[in-house]
Write a structure and sequence with these properties.
The complex is a heterodimer of chains A (660) and B (301). Chain A has 660 residues and is α/β, with parallel strands linked by helices. Chain A contains 13 helices and 34 strands. The longest helix of chain A is centred in the first third of the chain and has 37 residues. In chain B, β4 and β5 form a beta hairpin. Classes of the chains: A alpha/beta (660), B alpha/beta (301).
């Protein structure tokens, strides 16, 4: 508890004033000669206990009123986040500060970001403990514990804004490691976050282990969460979802697909500034609803490469208004089909790539002819044969790790061989009713809706035969009975897919092409990352190899921190494009109850910061005034004179003398 | 007349107004001489009592010859005897009688009542006596009819001081035994003693066929208990005291007091004693006028 006028607390002994006055008054009671003593004694006996309780209450109310008056005059700053400071000082306070891009949202009505706001509150509260407790900062970007002082908290590099995402379970793990390593006594973990769902990952399996680990610590650890979920001004974020260069002789263009996400669902126009090799151009696009994909192409001629950014005007969060891109003369995407079945031409057509002379079909090989050298310049492999083994499997695993995409179709026979943890089970045939698709991921992945928001016709798709997919994987589409139509397993920078039916009429209607063609085309494009010479990474997830290099921002020509700041960087002839993680653009927040449940039986306190939190502190001393008045009112009620009593010696009332 | 208070014990204008109404006994009295009050014996007054048969030895002058002429039987006509009144004024001189409020002390009020009543009794030719009930020394002046006896009573009243615990109950028992002849006993007291014992004492007096009048003197402050601040109450007949907040015990106090008063009034009514609750804010002459008027009404033959 802090006081604006602490010297007034020296007057606390004044709370004894009512007791002293009571004692003096007791001595000053006027004696009264009384004749009808026998009735007085009888009345006193019967009402003594009630009278005593009442007198104690009156005395307590008077003491309370004086105490509250003193506290009111000393202007206490209690309550809210600062009110936490009332607790005893722990040996260590671990400050877990979320400095992800979403924390740069402005607090409505102020010019402060959520990060700045929470840092201010934390500094105020931690200031009370600075002399008795160690303050350890663990920021979301580096997660490296660092001893800090309150005065420098707002200026530390570890509290500055970043373009990264936050991983709250990982931060708590870092805090746990520090507590174990340093054998701290009593400790508190203060978390400052905006409760963004993608940061908290409430479904993550690490939570359970964390809670168990914190619970088993020998010392008492209290966890306090300062949630900054105040209202923010309207915000629009921008992120690059696709980048492709199409070259035809000396004519070339770069095709961009950009996702615009808005915090409000009303239709509006977004002004986008495109910068390409230092030249800025403005565009306008209509944004309908909360999410829109904007496609744009740029003529680049025969330039070998270039870089640029797409920028939105300032809004509720200035940190999510830019996305960077870089194009080069990378090899175009190409597909490879490995099969011996008659479906080969169909796969080749579906995985074909547009060229100047028209569409160029994918290359086709028999499984036995496949060698690792065939994977050069390939972005997608379609495999419809028994799962690869030996060198073939190793080469394909390497291919996927580098960013390539690999799709397996059922060979028709069960086998024990696995690839990336997945394998083929028994073949199943429909009895009477064909298998129908029950659900699929419409938002992302190869079966997502089109740019125009149209569904792929999976709801019309039926299958007569399918082959069971074995193993744990993300199911992107499933039949009505829950079995997977399309399962995905991430491996390195690439992905492995298992599709459980074939585009044959005896198997399914997949051969119509309305599903399989867009699916393979999307995977073909997604695998292009494998062939890019330039590195593309999300902030905070730059590869270890790239981190060894010294990078210079091409925008500012200064050395930049590629791990925390988005931008286009260059190191010699290598380029690195770092963008904010797309998850940071999501506005979904974790509910308070869910957060509380995550911490299980740990000592946990959630505080919702409000914009007018300083005013809340003011309410505290007003509350003291209110309670003081309440105590006085209760006291007045207790000592109120009974009806008919006016003074000790009232005017006599004539009373007749009744006769017996 | 010896007087200690600023106001005289007997005021001429008051007794002048009250003398017009005689003080009559409600029951037959046993006096020594003839007077205005009924006697339990038959006598020769003008007031007819009854006829009775002649028995040998009766004075034949008292035969009713008119009845003999009509019925041929001997009847004697008897008349009420009338006698004088013996009045004991019992004055409680305990410490509680010194209670004082804005209306003066209760003891002064009682003394004026006692003096005026004594004057009225002697003035109408009856005998008046005074019994002072003190803690250690009771003083008794036997009833006499002569005017000089009044002076003795007034002197005794002038010297009386309220002090100590009340001895009213033993004195009343003693008086009941001592006064053989029927008399009017007027008690002036606040009756702050044990209710059951007081009832026994009053009943004892009535058993001896005394006419009993109890002036229960109370101060309005005692009835209303109108205090609004904590007060240290000091017992006037003892040494102990209590500090209390009147507002909190007022209801209880009044309940206890009213229960006592109601019981006393009921008891007096039961054995035909004349109970009069008197608050000291009332003018004493009005109290006496009411007393005399009611007695005259009931005592009419």
């Amino acid at each position: 508890m802090t006081f604006l006028q602490p010297f007034i607390l020296w007057g606390l002994p004044l709370v004894l004033l009512p007791v002293i006055i009571h004692l003096i008054n007791r001595m000053r009671h006027r004696p009264r000669q009384w004749a009808a003593m026998q009735f007085l004694l009888a009345a006193t006996r019967s009402s003594t206990s009630h009278s005593k309780i009442k007198n104690w209450l009156i005395l307590a109310m008077r003491i309370l009123a004086v105490l509250l008056l003193l506290l009111f005059l000393s202007r206490p700053l209690v309550g809210g986040w600062l009110g936490w400071a009332m607790a005893a000082a722990p040996d260590a306070i671990l400050l877990l500060v979320d400095r992800s891009a979403s924390m740069e949202s402005r607090v409505a009505g102020t010019n402060e970001s959520r990060r700045e706001y929470t840092l201010k509150l934390i500094a105020s509260a931690a200031g009370e403990f600075e002399n008795n407790s160690h303050l350890i900062l663990i920021d979301s970007a580096t997660r490296k514990p660092e001893t800090v002082s309150v005065a420098s908290l707002a200026e530390l590099p570890g509290t500055q804004p970043t373009d990264t995402a936050a991983d709250i379970p990982a931060m708590l793990q870092a805090a746990l490691d520090w507590l174990i390593e340093n054998e701290a006594g009593t400790a508190e973990v203060w978390i400052a976050s905006d409760l963004q769902s993608s940061n908290w990952l409430p479904g993550d399996s690490r939570w359970e282990a964390l809670v168990t680990a914190f619970d088993s610590l020998p010392q008492k650890v209290r966890i306090r969460l300062l949630a900054t979920t105040q209202d923010s001004p309207p915000n629009t974020s921008i992120s690059l979802s696709e980048l492709a260069r199409v070259q035809s002789g000396e004519t070339g263009e770069v095709r961009l697909a950009v996702d615009l996400k808005r915090s409000e669902a009303t239709a509006d126009t977004a002004a986008i500034t495109r910068t390409l090799n230092g030249i800025a151009t403005e565009f306008e696009t209509r944004v309908n609803g909360q999410s829109t994909r904007w496609r744009h192409s740029v003529e680049v001629g025969d330039q070998s490469g270039g870089w640029g950014k797409l920028e939105l005007p300032a809004d509720g969060n200035p940190r999510d208004n830019v996305t960077y891109y870089r194009y080069s003369d990378d090899h175009p995407p190409a597909g490879l089909v490995i099969t011996e079945s008659a479906l080969g031409p169909l796969w080749q057509a579906a995985a074909s790539v547009a060229d100047t002379s028209g569409r160029k079909p994918a290359k086709r090989l028999a499984p036995d002819d496949f060698t690792s050298s065939d994977l050069r310049d390939i972005t997608l492999v379609v495999w419809q044969a028994p799962l690869p083994q030996g060198d073939s499997a190793t080469a394909l695993r390497q291919f996927v790790n580098e960013g390539g995409r690999l799709v397996f179709f059922p060979p028709g026979e069960a086998a024990t061989t696995r690839f990336a943890g997945l394998g083929w089970g028994e073949k199943q045939e429909a009895d009477e009713e064909p298998f129908k698709i029950g659900r699929w991921d419409e938002d992302q992945g190869p079966l997502a809706n089109t740019d125009e928001g149209l569904l792929l016709p999976l709801n019309q798709l039926t299958a007569l035969q399918r082959q069971r997919v074995l193993g744990q994987a993300a199911v992107l589409a499933a039949f009505n009975d829950g079995q997977a139509l399309l399962a995905r397993q991430a491996l390195g920078q690439g992905e492995v897919y298992f599709c459980s039916t074939l585009p044959l009429l005896t198997w399914s209607e997949l051969g119509g092409g309305m599903v399989v063609v867009p699916m393979l085309q999307r995977l073909l494009a997604a695998g292009s990352a494998r062939l890019q010479r330039d590195s593309v990474a999300e902030c905070g997830k730059v590869g270890a190899g790239d981190l060894q290099l010294e990078w210079t921002s091409v925008e500012t020509s200064q050395r930049g921190d590629v791990q925390t700041q988005a931008g286009v960087y260059q190191s010699g002839d290598r380029w690195l494009v770092v963008n904010r993680p797309a998850a940071e653009n999501e506005f979904e927040r974790v509910e308070d109850e869910v957060v509380s449940a995550l911490f299980g039986g740990l000592s946990f306190q959630l505080f919702q910061a409000k914009r007018d939190d300083t005013a809340l502190q003011g309410e505290i001393w007003r509350m003291f005034l209110f309670f003081m008045l309440l105590a006085l009112l209760v006291e007045a009620w207790l000592i109120r004179p009974r009806a008919g009593v006016e003074s000790d010696e009232p005017t006599p009332k004539p009373q007749p003398a009744p006769a017996a | 007349m010896p007087e200690e208070s600023a106001q005289p014990l007997i005021e001429a204008d008051v007794v002048g107004r009250l003398m017009g109404q005689p003080l009559l006994a409600r029951f037959p009295m046993e006096g020594s001489v003839s007077g205005h009050h009924r006697s339990p014996h038959r006598g020769s007054s003008v007031e007819f009592a009854e006829y009775r048969n002649y028995v040998p030895g009766d004075d034949i002058r008292r035969l009713d010859w008119r009845v003999f002429a009509r019925t041929d039987r001997y009847y004697l006509k008897e008349f009420e005897a009338e006698t004088n009144l013996r009045c004991y004024v019992v004055l409680d001189c305990s410490g509680s009688m010194a209670f004082e409020s804005a209306h003066g002390t209760r003891f002064d009020y009682a003394k004026r009542l006692a003096a005026t009543l004594s004057y009225l009794v002697i003035n109408q030719g009856d005998a008046a006596g005074l019994v002072r009930v003190n803690a250690n020394d009771n003083t008794e002046i036997p009833p006499r009819r002569n005017a000089s006896h009044l002076q003795l009573i007034l002197d005794s009243l002038g010297q009386a001081q309220p002090k100590g615990e009340t001895q009213l109950i033993p004195l009343l028992h003693e008086l009941a035994e001592k006064a053989r002849r029927r008399a009017l006993v007027i008690i002036l007291s606040d009756c702050f003693c044990d209710g059951a014992e007081l009832r026994d004492a009053l009943q004892h007096l009535r058993f001896q066929k005394h006419d009993l009048a109890l002036f229960h003197l109370l101060d309005p402050l005692e009835l209303d208990f109108t205090f609004d601040r904590p007060v240290r109450f000091v017992d006037m007949e003892g040494s102990h005291s209590i500090v209390t907040e009147p507002a909190t015990i007022r209801a209880e106090y009044q309940t206890e007091l009213n229960r006592f008063l109601e019981r006393l009034r009921t008891d007096c009514h039961e054995f035909n004693a004349d109970y009069r609750r008197v608050t000291t804010d009332l003018p004493y002459d009005k109290v006496l006028a009411d007393f005399l008027t009611e007695r005259a009404g009931r005592g009419k033959r």
